[in-house]
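--- STAGE predict ---
source: upstream dedup step, 1 unique chain passed
mode: sequence only
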Amino acid sequence: MNTKILVLFLVLASLFISGCAEEDAGPVETDEAGVSESGVEEQDESLPVGPTEDHIVRLEYYEVMKPSELDISRGDSVSWWSYKRQGTYVLVSEDSLFPSTELKYSVPFSYTFDEAGIYSFTVEDVPAMNMTVTVN
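--- STAGE serialize ---
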């Protein structure tokens, strides 16, 4: 009986150890879009290598979005926060960067800007709540 348990333990241990070993698959080929054969997107080398920042935009009562203009670098993220305790806001990307997103109180939505450009955002049904993000 002890021999069977020992053999079972050794088999399980060898399976565990072999599963933890890394295999070098060699270089991975990518297509023009930067997607490898396995479907994993490769890092865009045009993005900044240094630290990136997360910028916060507050959606407040009285049709206010603070700040209304934002200058950021490629690779930076913007997080929109709703400070409306009752109800929600719906954030709209005028440039179709993402689908319209419902923002609940104190639950942020973040987006990382990878391409330079000027992007506009509004709040559905509140045209006075708008902002522009300039990505350098």
